[in-house]
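@channel sequence for tomorrow's demo:
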Amino acid sequence: MSVRTAATATREAVPAATVAVVRDHADGLQVLLQERALASDFVGGAWVFPGGKVDGRDAMVDPTRLGPVDLAAVHGVFGSSVGRHGRGDTLALLVAAIRETFEEAGVLLAHRDGRPVDHTDLAEDAFTTARAGLADRERDHDWRPFLHDQGLVLDLAALRPLAWWVTPHGVHRRFSTRFFVAVAPAGQQRPAGHDAIEMTATVWTTPAEALAAAACGERQVIFPTRTVLSSLVDLPDVAAVSAHADAGGFDLRPITPLVRRVGGRMHVQHPDGGPPEDV
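structure tokens (generated this afternoon):
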């Protein structure tokens, strides 16, 4: 993460959404992490949750393609500074979260013919073609016809608010990222596949294992991701995660890390305090 001088005019933080997909496993609660391509101009090489910025069309999905959700509740925790269109922008966050998770991880939180999408659906040509189109950086792909043609209804209620992180001022690309947590559908618990464009590797791991790998330098895990993993580390299974979210147990404040220089290197620090850490 490159930080410019204080004199540099800060860029506006672009709305984005990311999803911590979780599942039960014999080792305990596992979360899906992906490695960003080294060539990426934003945290290249880091292990993150699938996600990305909101597209203008995310709020314009046909209402018949949207499952029920308490939009007012999501707007209540994430609506501030989403954009100029109130709940429409909150809806766009939810749609973006599902779209990006499908594109980057091959996990689709949706129903088809009244049942959750499973791995047999995802193997169909229409699904693989749609995912490739979303990942193609040479063209602007609109997935809405795919949703209609395949009779898909996005499972918006599967997304529970988890965290809200804003890139520090002075960084060349800034995002206001809402983190959601979602349970992997029963029919999609095989190892998900990365898109080989933005993401180059995928792993299911426990939060504790992910944090240990970051601590020893085995994997690069950025500060917001480490903090979110820490919020999951004591939760034993998906039921506990869901209950914790429903009880308002996660910190949903917008957090903008402070940038500190330590020994000639840039570090970040939680605004609530604590020692500066590697970005």
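heads up for whoever presents: The CA atoms of residues 133 and 205 lie 28 Å apart.
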